[in-house]
Every structure is written in C-alpha cells, then in structure tokens.
Amino acid sequence: MDLPQQGYRATKPRARAPPPTADSVLFDDTSSAAPAMNSQGYYTPGYNMAGPQNDMQGGAGPNNMFADPMANAAMMYGSSLANTGKDMVNKEISKFMSVNKLKYFFAVDTRYVLKKLMILMFPYTHQDWEVRYHRDTPLPPRQDVNAPDLYIPTMAFITYILLAGMALGIQKRFSPEVLGMCASTALVWVIIEVLVMLLSLYLLTVHSDLSTFDLIAYSGYKYVGMIFTVLCGLLFGSDGYYVALAWCSCALMFFLVRSLKMKIIPSTDSMGTGSSAKPQFRLYITVVIAVFQPIIIYWLTSHLVR
C-alpha cells in the first residue's frame, strides 16, 4: 500500500562540510586566557571584587585619609575659617555688650543670693551700703553683697511668669496669649524704666558709675517683691495682697535710694563746687522711685489676684 504523497517533497541530500581548520575558526579558545582576563578586571572564579588591595592604596583607607597632605591642609583651612568666624561674631557682640562684663553680673553663689534676698525684703536692718573696690575695679557679687547682679532679676522674672501662669490657671483664665502678654508687659516696663533713668542722667548731666547693666539689675529687683505680693494675694486674698504690696513698695524704694546714692557722682559747675547738682538729683531720683515703683508693681500683679 502506497503512502499518500501530499505535502511531501523530495529533496536532494546536502553535502556535509569538512571539519573546520585552524584558519577558519569563528571563535577563539579563551580557556587559556584566564590570566589575561584577570589582569583586565573581568570576573573570574576566585577574583576579588572588593577592590584594590591595601598595597595598591598604600595602607588602610581611613588611616590613609589623615596621612594625606591635601586632607590635612583642608582640615587646617576649615579650622582657621571657624576661628575667624568666631572672632568676627565676638567682635560684633562686643560692639553692643561686653561678654566679660556680663559675666561679672552672674558671678554669684548661694550665700550671696540668700543675703541679697534678705536685704531686698528687709533693707532697714542693713547698715553698710558701700560698694567695695579692688584696684579701681568693683568686687564681684559673690564677694560684695552690695554689688548689683543680674542673676536674681533673671530668676525672679522667670519665677514671676511661672507664678502668673499658676495664678491664671487657678482662676481658670489661663491661655498662652494671656501668659505671653504678662511676660512682654513686664519686660517692656523694665526697658522703659532703664530708658527713663538713662535720659535723666543725661539731662541732669550727672556723672555716675552706673552702667546700663547696673540699671537693669536695680530695675529687675522689683520682681522679688512682685512674687511675694502675688503669693500673699493667692494665700490670704485681697487684704494680704495690699499689705504685701505696701511692704514691698516701701522696701524697694528704700533699697534703691540707698544703693543708688552710693554710685552717683554729681557733676561740678564751673566753680568746681557741684553743691547744687547733688541735692537736685537726689530729690529727683527719690520722687521717681517713690511714684513709679508701687504703680509698676500694682500694674503687673493686680490682675493676678482676685
């Protein structure tokens, strides 16, 4: 039985090509070229892909960085830039305030703080109000209780803000806006007071040893009395508040008059007497302190006690 012939085409048998010779090989045998590929950086089994060895770098990487002259030069240049910037900042700050002088007002210890607080609250028992000097330089507060400082005013200001927040919270009137208003108002009053004192010294042509930091310190001592006044108002009501207000106002006026009197040097007239400037300035400063101190304390504390 014959098979169907559909779809079947008879083909002529192809002649097989002879085996390739050495000259007609299409691809080279690279089995013996592994060392050459190794030297070119291609991956082969056993090849280290981590990078060059230490002998090619001259040592370990992190340690070699500090031994590099360029790295050392860059570090020295950066250090010099940092020192130059620091000197420029200190120079700009020294135009407005002396850092060393500011450190003087914070040179206090526990013994000084306790004595100063007692003088602020009971100044009538203090006898010696003279500020001591060493080679024309006033002694720091830790060595002289009569020297002004900025530590007590700063801490008293912060304590007053915290106490105001507590008083407002007790009365259910606390809010960040009200507390911020209390802090800004207290700070503005100090600035106004210092400016008034500086203007008075200038207009009356009174030469004194008082610096701006001294005036800020003396003006900031009122916060101690304000804290005592608010505490008495919270504990004993309005009666205790007004009694504490009267006591602190009188004590602060007495303290400021006795302290400032030792630092003020009246200007002399053309005859060199200077007898008229001294009583005039003393009368002026006494009136300013007597009138404004109770008003400022009452203004800053009355809304905290109800």
TrEMBL record:
Protein name: Protein YIF1
Origin: domain of life: Eukaryota
Region (Disordered): 1-28
Topology in the lipid bilayer: Multi-pass membrane protein
Subcellular location(s) per record: Endoplasmic reticulum membrane; Golgi apparatus membrane
Family: Belongs to the YIF1 family.
InterPro entries from the UniProt entry: Yif1_fam (IPR005578)
